Amino acid sequence: MKASLLIVLFFILGVLVSYFGLLPKLLLHADINSYVLYLLMFVVGIGIGSDEESLAVLRNIKFRILLIPITIAIGSLAASALFSFLVSDLTLKESMAVGAGFGYYSLSSGIITKIHSDSLGTIALLANVIREIFTLLFAPLLVFLFGKMAPVASGGATAMDTTLPIITRVSGNDMGLIAVFSGIVLTLIVPFLVTIILTF
Amino acid sequence: MIEVLSLMTLGILLGYVIRQKKKITKRINHSIFWVVLLLLFFMGVSVGSNPKIMQNLQTIGLRGLELALSATFGSILLVWLVFSVFFKSGWPTKNSNSPIDKNTKSTLP
Q1: Could you give the angle at which helices A92-99 and A63-86 cross, rounded to 10 degrees?
Q2: Residue ranges per domain, chain B?
Q3: Is B63 in contact with A123 (Cβ distance < 8 A)?
Q4: How many beta carbons lie within 10 A of that of residue A62, not counting itself?
Q5: Which has more pLDDT, A18 or A74?
Q6: Is the ipTM of this complex over 0.95?
Q7: Which chain B residues touch A135 with a CB distance below 8 Å?
Q8: C-alpha distances in angstroms, B85 versus B12, B49, B78, B88, B99?
Q9: What is the interface size between A and B, counted as CB pairs within 8 Å?
Q10: Residue B36 and residue A18: Cα distance in Å, rounded?
Q11: Residue, of A60 and B56, whose pLDDT is higher
């Protein structure tokens, strides 16, 4: 939670310094965003490729277990799609692209900012940070209401790292393994899904 | 957008090649956090200099919250429906059907 708050703080800091004109013009006009996003994609890729534990997890996929992240993904996408019909200022695609972040706010909001707009990128950042914080705060309640798998569903992509400790605490260690697996699968599909939704 | 996905794929391949060099991969993994901070800072910069967004902050914040709750509860409810209702009796959570083999267990917190 500390890390995600620090990240939001940096975002707000960026908003403030540019809103009050404290930055040199050079930093405003240069396409820095894109370059930093490229750098992030590259290092995230290295992180994934060199992560032998994740590779071992993926090698042992069983189809029945794969149903969990697939169900989580369909649930998020369907509900986001339904939401777009309730409001006039979001299209189906925009709404689903935000939902396809599954809590992975840095990458999803960066990609959405790059291929769509700053405003949708900001919505994606908020929506996915809120998803993570919601999971951290309400995991015990979710288990009580919807069973042991609910915090895994709520955490989405974050179930492999930031929300894993709370999931194992409230759902048990056996659910922790499923959480890691589900989180890895969702994390891997976020960049592809977001791009595909907004491009086609 | 091809460049973003191909950079990531390139990173995955490179990461796989150097996966034995733990010192380097560890350092790169730590750097991800700083790159995220940098990215979010510059996203903030472009948002702050965009009057259209700054005038609509309330709507944008509200949509963020609404979409967060929609997506989160969409996942929770569908998982609940599929796994508690359809697979009511036989959902495996015991060791026998663990998705991960035993030698990776010890690495988890």
Answers
A1: 140
A2: 28-85
A3: yes
A4: 13
A5: A74
A6: no
A7: 72
A8: 38, 50, 10, 5, 21
A9: 328
A10: 19
A11: B56
Res A190 pLDDT > 80: yes
Q: What is the pLDDT along chain B (109 residues), one digit of tens a residue?
A: 677 788 888 998 999 999 899 899 899 888 988 998 998 898 888 888 888 888 889 999 999 999 999 999 999 999 999 988 776 655 554 444 444 444 444 444 4
Transcribe A121-160 into DSSP letters.
HHHHHHHHHHHHHHHHHHHHHHHHHH-TTHHHHHHGGGGG
For every residue of chain A, DSSP letters joined together read -HHHHHHHHHHHHHHHHHHTT-S-HHHHHS-HHHHHHHHHHHHHHHHHHT-HHHHHHHHT--HHHHHHHHHHHHHHHHHHHHHHHH-SS--HHHHHHHHTTTT-HHHHHHHHHHHT-HHHHHHHHHHHHHHHHHHHHHHHHHHHHH-TTHHHHHHGGGGGTTTHHHHHHHH-HHHHHHHHHHHHHHHHHHHHHHHHHHH-
What is the token pair recorded at B55? 């005038």
CA distance A93 to chain B (A): 13
- Whether A135 has a pLDDT exceeding 90, the answer reads yes
